[in-house]
Amino acid sequence: MKIISTLATATAGLALLAGAAAAQTTTLRIQTQQSPESPAGQLAAEWVENVEAMSGGDIDIEMFYSSAVVKSAESFDAAANGILDCDMTNGSYQTGKNPAFQFVADVMGGYDTPLQFLAWIKYGGGREQINALYNANGMEFVGAWLGGQESLNSTRPIAGIEDLENFKFRSPPGMESEIFAALGAKPVVMDFTEIFTALETGIIDGADASTLANNVGLGIYDIATHTTYPGFHSMSSDHLACSTATWEAMPEAHREILRVSMDSLALGLMTRVIVDNGEALSALPEKGVTLHDWSAEDRATFRKAATDTWESWAEKTPEARAIVDSHIGFLERIGLRD
């Protein structure tokens, strides 16, 4: 009996040692452009805590906020080259590498809700299309998170397509400027920090800045008393992307935790934006701000102009062509395009 007991004890000890040896830890250094005080930054911090809890502490994340390690546009390459492990910024920073990145970051005029964009990733072949692009650049796409449509702001009414004629507004460079110019607007590319002075002095009539609630926080409606809501033109999506080497070194269980946790983060941001925008919505009319909800016809006209511009961008590279075709096919599939 004593011999059997000793053997049993030894066997149990060996099993514990084997389990300990088999346990694998993953340490990730991730950068985001979001500040820790912003709603998105707060949600990113919760995401870190959730991932570490779900993994039982086997995934350890060090998050760098406000692009503390490298500039936002350099975060993707920093991860690919091993300075970081993962990038949690925005694919639009990489359009200089390939125009296809635009259609991962912001499908201008394409989808009405973030759920539709996420449905493309999950059920429309989007994940495979994105990874064909990312893998070629040494990165693995893990997931996306986006709050919803942004609101266009103006010092004069912007109730529909006709009001875009000669509408001078701050626009980011690239595809957005081309779309609005095709509709008669006069986009002005300027740094975000110049918006307030340009609005106050009349250099511009309006600005593309952010969501309704964020615009309130920025103080834009102290100057611009007209805004679109719900938005129609832009819905920017941040990503989590890890270097191929980092991703392949992880056990599959850790990869799945990251994938699933990104779905949770996306839901968290969508619902947070609904609440924040709702609170802003109820307060703005009392401050003299007029909200403009574009008609289905005007939205369709904008979408047509946007997708026409997509076509010119799609011709730039085979990867852009493939992702644009994927989006168009999915839009048709879910009834957003004739």
UniProtKB/TrEMBL annotation:
It holds the Pfam family DctP. CDD domains: PBP2_TRAP_ketoacid_lactate_like. InterPro entries: DctP_fam, TRAP_DctP_sf. The keyword RNA-binding does not apply. Keywords: Periplasm, Signal. The keyword rRNA-binding does not apply. Residues 1-23 form the signal peptide. One of its GO terms (biological process) is transmembrane transport. It is found in: Periplasm. GO terms for cellular component: periplasmic space. Gene3D superfamilies: Bacterial extracellular solute-binding protein, family 7. This is TRAP transporter substrate-binding protein.
